[in-house]
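I had to read the description of the data format several times before I understood it. The format is easy to grasp once an entry is in front of the reader. For illustration, here is how one protein appears when written out as sequence plus structure tokens:
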Amino acid sequence: MSQQNIKSDSILIRTSQLPAAELGPDDTVLLDAERGVYYGLEGPARQIWEKLSEEVTLDDICTSLVKEYDVEREQCESDTRDFIAELIENGLVKVR
């Protein structure tokens, strides 16, 4: 799915619960044993992953990130769309 298909009000959620290990206050590693792949998440990526544990919109995610980080809303939406598109491509997130 391209990032253009992810709208601000799209409902997003994880497709499965991957085993995770916290490596520090801002670092998490996810293990996809079926594919033999692991994902390292830190900072905003980790926060996005945590928010995706429940149904959430892109708008909700970006509202939270803009408050937390020194980032313009437009840049946050673009970067978050890219990241979520990658998660969708890897079968970790779906759009409802």
Remarks:
- The radius of gyration is 13 Å.
- Strands lie at 11-14, 20-24, 27-32, 37-42, 56-57, 93-95.
- The chain has three helices and six strands.
- Helices lie at 44-51, 58-68, 73-89.
